From TrEMBL:
Name the UniProt record assigns to this protein: UPF0284 protein D6D85_12295
Pfam families: DBI_PRT
MF GO annotations: nicotinate-nucleotide-dimethylbenzimidazole phosphoribosyltransferase activity
HAMAP family per UniProt: UPF0284
Family to which the UniProt record says this protein belongs: Belongs to the UPF0284 family.
UniProt cross-references to InterPro entries, sorted A to Z: Nict_dMeBzImd_PRibTrfase, Nict_dMeBzImd_PRibTrfase_arc, Nict_dMeBzImd_PRibTrfase_sf
Length: 368
């Protein structure tokens, strides 16, 4: 794998463009935005590991952003964990943002539980089960409001880093990508080592069938695709990017869900793609059970950058478990780590990050 100079950042795809993106943001001051939402898809048994029980996934996004802004959670006790007790990737994001003194803003795309922190509301509602054919309401309105927010954020920061928290999001992303003609079957990632591809594909294909659409029939109609089979994070996230990327660089921070975001952006304004890169983690790009590059290469020639995080030497089993294929990414963890490294011009390394993550993990475990 090729690395960028003194940084613990892997140039995974479109390497020259990746180098150019990093040189453009080196030493600059980013703004981190986390877009949150809920979808009933997360409550389908076996889909998500973002909570001990499917019904409590409603609390995961608000708890994630409370952790980012407050350093602890208010809507739940402790921190969001998988059924195996593995902490949310928001722990990584919080640690990176605090180390590099990067400000964070929350945009609510549509959650059932409101976080106990300030947030920008773009008028979205929680998503329904995509097998109803009525997944997301007022998609166009939410997207337009988010565009206004993105444009204004671009006036107060050198560049934006945008992440997300929505349990069940890889299944809705798969559905939207299929509707828009991107073959993502067997390519989306999972927060679990045993990626339930068959279940996700079955649900996605059923949702298209119920909506009366064929794969690829909505290539140029992302609003309809999201309305029928998407989730409420998508229009908020895509709108932010569309509003900002004509003015400043935007690092879209996430895993295979970013394929759906890219497809939406390409259909609405392909001109801004030249100002976009994906920021993710090593765990995503080394995952043999998903294929981020295979998804992105079908959509646009944009770079994929990965923070080379390594928890194998951690003092804590909950963190070492990341090395066994659990969680991998979320809440903009990879993008936040990359932004911290770039703002500090390399003084924040993966070792520095691990030390901060361990300190925060120890403190949070004691609070439980």
């Amino acid at each position: 794998m090729e690395y960028e100079k003194k940084y613990d950042i892997i140039l995974f795809h479109e390497k020259e463009k990746g180098k150019n993106f990093l040189s453009e943001v080196e030493g600059k001051n980013p703004l981190f935005i986390c877009t949150i939402g809920n979808t009933q898809v997360a409550k389908i048994p076996g889909i998500s590991a973002a909570g001990k029980f499917p019904e409590i996934t409603d609390y995961t996004p608000p708890a994630d952003v409370e952790l980012l802004l407050l350093g602890s959670c208010k809507c739940i006790q402790g921190v969001p964990v998988t059924p195996e007790g593995i902490p949310t990737p928001a722990l990584i994001t919080m640690s990176a943002l605090r180390l590099a003194n990067i400000p964070a803003i929350v945009v609510n795309g549509g959650t059932r539980i409101k976080p106990h922190v300030p947030f920008i509301d773009v008028g979205g509602e929680p998503g329904e089960d995509i097998r109803t054919g009525k997944a997301v309401k007022n998609v166009e309105e939410v997207l337009e409001r988010a565009k206004i927010a993105g444009e204004n954020f671009s006036r107060i920061a050198d560049y934006l880093v945008i992440g997300e928290s929505i349990p069940g999001g890889t299944t809705t992303a798969l559905s939207v990508m299929l509707a828009m003609g991107i073959d993502a079957r067997g390519k989306v990632s999972s927060s679990m080592p045993d990626n339930p591809h068959d279940l996700k594909t079955r649900i996605a294909e059923e949702s298209l069938r119920i909506s009366g659409i064929k794969a690829g029939s909505l290539t140029n109609d992302p609003i309809k695709a999201v309305s029928l089979v998407g989730d409420p994070m998508m229009p908020a996230f895509a709108g932010l990017v569309l509003g900002a990327a004509s003015r400043v660089p935007v690092l879209i921070a996430g895993g295979t869900q970013m394929g759906a975001i890219l497809a939406i952006i390409k259909a609405l304004n392909p001109g801004v793609l030249k100002n976009i890169a994906i920021g993710t983690t090593r765990w995503i790009i080394s995952d043999a059970k998903s294929d981020l590059r295979g998804i992105v290469s079908q959509i646009a020639d944009i770079p994929i950058l990965a923070a080379d995080l390594d928890f194998s030497s951690s003092r804590f089993e909950g963190l070492r478990t990341y090395e066994r294929g659990f969680v991998k990414e979320g809440v903009g963890a990879g993008g936040a780590a990359i932004a911290a490294m770039m703002k500090s011009k390399g003084s924040i390394s993966r070792e520095t990050l691990l030390g901060e993550i361990e300190r925060n993990y120890e403190r949070l475990v004691q609070l439980r």
